[in-house]
Design brief:
Two copies of one chain form a homodimer. Chain A is α/β, with parallel strands linked by helices. The first copy, chain A, folds into two domains: 128 residues, Nucleotidyltransferase, domain 5, CATH 3.30.420; 115 residues, Nucleotidyltransferase, domain 5. The two termini of chain A are 17 Å apart. The mean pLDDT of chain A is 94. At the A-B interface, helix 4, helix 6 and helix 9 of A face helix 4, helix 6 and helix 9 of B.
Amino acid sequence: MSKPLFLGIDGGGTKCRARLRNVDGALLGEGTGGPSNIRLDPDLVWTSILTACREALAQAGLKEDDLKGIHAGMGAAGAGQASAVERLLSRAHPFASFAIETDAHTAWLGAFGGGDGAILILGTGSCGYGGVNGQCRYVGGWGFEISDEGSGASIGRELLRRCIWAHDGRAPATPLSDALLAEFNNDLEALIDWVGAARPSDYARYAPLVLEHAGRRDPLGIALMKDAGDGASRIAMRLLELGAPSLCLFGGLSEPLKPWLPPPIQQAIVQPKADALDGAILLGRSASSRRQP
Amino acid sequence: MSKPLFLGIDGGGTKCRARLRNVDGALLGEGTGGPSNIRLDPDLVWTSILTACREALAQAGLKEDDLKGIHAGMGAAGAGQASAVERLLSRAHPFASFAIETDAHTAWLGAFGGGDGAILILGTGSCGYGGVNGQCRYVGGWGFEISDEGSGASIGRELLRRCIWAHDGRAPATPLSDALLAEFNNDLEALIDWVGAARPSDYARYAPLVLEHAGRRDPLGIALMKDAGDGASRIAMRLLELGAPSLCLFGGLSEPLKPWLPPPIQQAIVQPKADALDGAILLGRSASSRRQP
């Protein structure tokens, strides 16, 4: 009998990635597929997963039939929703075993190899996740409307609010508020129409503008970055208070937001041991070993 | 020829009210109709308006045919949107003249009789509006998502955000956060499902809970009311800075929020001279006199 192989899958809203390693950890192949947030249609998600897997298999010189000897682990956006996981698992999988967890969990598994630690994702949304003594929990990450402090979407939304203040004369105009309002020809009706159709990713596209102006000491830019840093810190503080000895940051805003965190939090930040795909491989390995004692 | 009559109409999202006065200001009749936010279907809105008008006419002993001798003024929710006004006016009106403005404008007209002053509406949403030397302008009131500070909807949404903090351990639990989370059986998934379908009026229904707990010195309740007071103050400060000598408060939250405003703002608050219906009558009178010099 051949030695087992391990496949890690990272399922996101825009693409799916897969990585294949042997039992010694050697890299055999990688692949990419389409959207695989598991809240999407399960047939679409499985097509994306299998596209990524087949590419990884082909690089390793393996065939479709070899899937049944592979233990797979997947970290997926949307996997916090039990009904979405059930929907995905209503289709038969082709692997020797298949374990699924949230993308936060596999990012954490990769970052700390399953040991104590916490991660803070700062992107369009934000989410904290930590594991101590095998106990894992979320801090934040409950969505744009009433959570996701420190995220790009929150920064963008607050920028628009403050620009209305500047337009009304409730707050001084700054180069940042002038720049934003100019994008809407200083017409609040146009801005409000935009808001009516805006999604979190639309708001998040204004985060770079805020960063750029904050870097030039724009008072509004500095106030918004300070607020975002405070929101992110509140999540980080709680993760560390729960016993995580250190913290890994992920997401497009993690580098720019890091200097806005208080020094004692910055000092707790470490580089991840491995990425979320290797976390997914670790998930698949542990699940297979638990099932074959 | 008989002396002219004046009709004031107040068009809101749930009902329409009408009031008829003669040229000397004597009250002749009042009536009520259905929904008349003018963003709604114009046939529905006109049905609501005419139902309210006919009731007022009947009280005055007048007939349908007398409408053509009446000068009407209407303050309407939705009238800030030019396309909604156009849609309403695409149907012929039965009056001698018909003038329409926003409900904020007629509330201001009634409160100050057209003289200098400002109003601050604090209800489900919030909006400031002031007139100085005949120049009127809005401060705030651009909607729930990125404006409406100090409103019931903003208070409710911020309550939910802070209760997530308490649930996560990012902030201390208080009797208020305990009470709110208990409504969702301490299940954040259930809370987030609720948020997914919540409208501003749904969030605003939590404002009384916040007020009640703030009254008992709940730290979270006090923090939320202080924030709401700060948001409302920022609007009021700007209205006064623009030259309004005094301020009238309107809306269900105006009484409870008043003590949370800084004393110099409280001292600028006066009682309105008349209500929005009499403001609408004033609108109808001025429009008719401008048209018949």
